[in-house]
């Protein structure tokens, strides 16, 4: 996947309004045909955004809280979602962190390496003691020529209201490619 463009609800509404107002590029179509085509395109964008919003709304609260905790400046936010004996595994990097202290270490290191780090929820689902969160992992690796945005999935296993383990799945090679870095790149000091 290469860089994707995400359209917020407000942007989609503005785009739909612009289409309906006839401010689209001119073509050989008549004004009424242009308005009808633009209206259909604008409506399609609004419907797609609404469907996407519904998918992310179906993600259990703990999954949405987990994603939101990644973008806060308080690294304790993420760790507080985990049990004291939790295990956090990044499958792409083959890294494992133990306990809340490990989760804090992983989040702190991630924010030091990646500016504007985000995990935007696009969907997911949950069972009695598991939650799957689908989304887009994005940011800008310090020193890289370009930012990245790649699909990612995290599987959260729960104990009560807390996460007892999590596993992140994404394509490391795609992150490096999007970022303009060589496939064998590693952070300085590693």
Question: Would you give an account of this structure?
Answer:
The chain is an alpha+beta fold. The chain is 39% helix and 31% strand. The protein has six helices and six strands; from the N terminus they run ααααββαββββα. The chain has helices at residues 9-20, 31-57, 61-69, 76-79, 99-113, 172-179, and strands spanning 82-90, 95-98, 114-126, 130-141, 148-159, 162-170. Strands 2-1-6-5-4-3 form a six-stranded mixed sheet. A hairpin with a 2-residue loop joins strand 5 (148-159) and strand 6 (162-170). Helix 1 (9-20) packs antiparallel against helix 2 (31-57). The longest helix is centred in the first third of the chain and has 27 residues, at 31-57. The model is unreliable at 1-27 and 45-54 (pLDDT under 50).
Characteristic key phrases:
190 residues, alpha+beta, six-stranded mixed beta sheet
Compose a concise summary of this entry.
By secondary structure, the chain is an alpha+beta fold. It has helices at residues 9-20, 31-57, 61-69, 76-79, 99-113, 172-179, and strands spanning 82-90, 95-98, 114-126, 130-141, 148-159, 162-170.
Write the layout of secondary structure elements.
Elements lengths: L8 H12 L10 H27 L3 H9 L6 H4 L2 E9 L4 E4 H15 E13 L3 E12 L6 E12 L2 E9 L1 H8 L11
Parallel strand pairs: 1-6
Antiparallel strand pairs: 1-2, 3-4, 4-5, 5-6
Helix pairs in contact: 1-2
Q: Return the string of H and E elements.
A: HHHHEEHEEEEH
The end-to-end distance, rounded to whole angstroms, is 27 Å
Taken as a percent bin, the fraction of beta residues is 25-35%
Radius of gyration, CA atoms, in whole angstroms: 20 Å
Largest sheet: 6 strands, mixed
How many strands in all? Answer: 6
Main-sheet strand order equals 2-1-6-5-4-3
Global geometry: globular
- Proportion of residues in helical segments: 25-40%
